[in-house]
């Protein structure tokens, strides 16, 4: 009983198919022709990060080996050799993903720059939207910034993600109308129309009255009083 079970499993794993009927091939299998018998076999693929080191046969399943350093395979495969990784990133680029058995090396442009040039051979900084425009679409690793003019009633006087609304002049009145690049300029407030600034004194203690002292130059007669007729001042 045990032997019959093993034979049954082997028959399913190593099932042969006709070349005229490829639809029966599983996506997790690849076809291989056995060199000894000439039979076409459906072999199981090897997992990502490995490759087929020995194909399946009528009596054995396939064998897998890990990808050597500097090579990779992304998914299940029937490859006899792994793919070589890309060369180290050139100057001006940064390594986004390292080379390892399950993935290739990925080089990209630094932050705030994008891939440009013929065949994407250089990195250029993202453009700055000029005055009068705003950012419509931010830049990415592969595309530059896309700008869009400010709509009526708005402006931008420097590189900006969005446009600002023109200032509304109320009491002052409008001196100069704004544009897509400049804001409205309002008239300055008139000094004649401004109310005088007054203050009301706060109640407080009464101020002391300053009495003037008599002058030392006052004549003596004024101090001794009037002199009566016929009377002389005593000596």
UniProtKB/TrEMBL annotation:
GO terms for biological process: adaptive immune response; humoral immune response; negative regulation of B cell proliferation; negative regulation of myelination; negative regulation of T cell proliferation; neuron apoptotic process; oligodendrocyte apoptotic process. Residues 181-235 are annotated as: Disordered. Keywords: Disulfide bond. Residues 66-107 form the TNFR-Cys domain. Pfam families: TNFR_c6 (PF00020). GO terms for cellular component: plasma membrane. It comes from the Eukaryota. TNFR-Cys repeats lie at residues 66-107. PROSITE patterns: TNFR_NGFR_1, TNFR_NGFR_2. Residues 189-201 have a biased composition (Polar residues). Disulfide bonds join 67-82, 89-107. This is Tumor necrosis factor receptor superfamily member 21-like. It comes from Notothenia coriiceps (black rockcod).
